[in-house]
Write a structure and sequence with these properties.
Blueprint: H1 9-34, H2 37-50, H3 65-86, H4 91-111, H5 116-121, H6 127-131, H7 133-156, H8 171-184, H9 188-215
Amino acid sequence: MIQNKIMTPGETYTLGVLFLMAGSVIGLYLAYERGVALLLIGAMGLFSGYYYTAPPVFFAGRGLGELLVGLNFGVLSVAGSYYVHAQDISLVAVFASLPLSFLIAAILYINEFPDYDADKAAGKNHLVVYIGMERARWGFLFIVAGAYISIIAGVISDLLPIAALFVIPAAIFGIKAVKGLFKNYKKTTELIPSIKATILCHLATGLGFIVIFLLS
């Protein structure tokens, strides 16, 4: 929006604050209706969401952006949604959220490669900037692998149904993304199929988990 001059930085900031306020109102209502534990989840999301790029904390510029995106769009979203329905925090829900936490972080991570030069110049020192593009490729491999290792760990620990293993074939998209990144990590256009494969990996894994939990 800013780069294409559709909105000014000030307008973008105002819109972001309005979204945070709207989300907070909804969250307060849910906390009132379902339990105060949601206040803690909401506060964590609100704080990390605002200070993701806002000074003086600027999480995204300190190598913590990937962790916070994984936490907010994985663990907190799934565990919070589960709590709204069950009014309880379940280790099953937490384990079910881990693959999505890893894979949403992977989507952010792979998109940091084409933005490397601009982000480095702007002082947005995310993990790819800290590690360097060539070595950071291995970080992407570990993040994608972590998603499916967490599924296997969940099944072994009896916190996920054995049927969860049927989601693992979705890793084929992740493998495609890893191969493409290792080959084209410095080529923006050629990297697009790997970015799309990462998104498909996250989508297929999430949909697979929905089906498995409904059936089991």
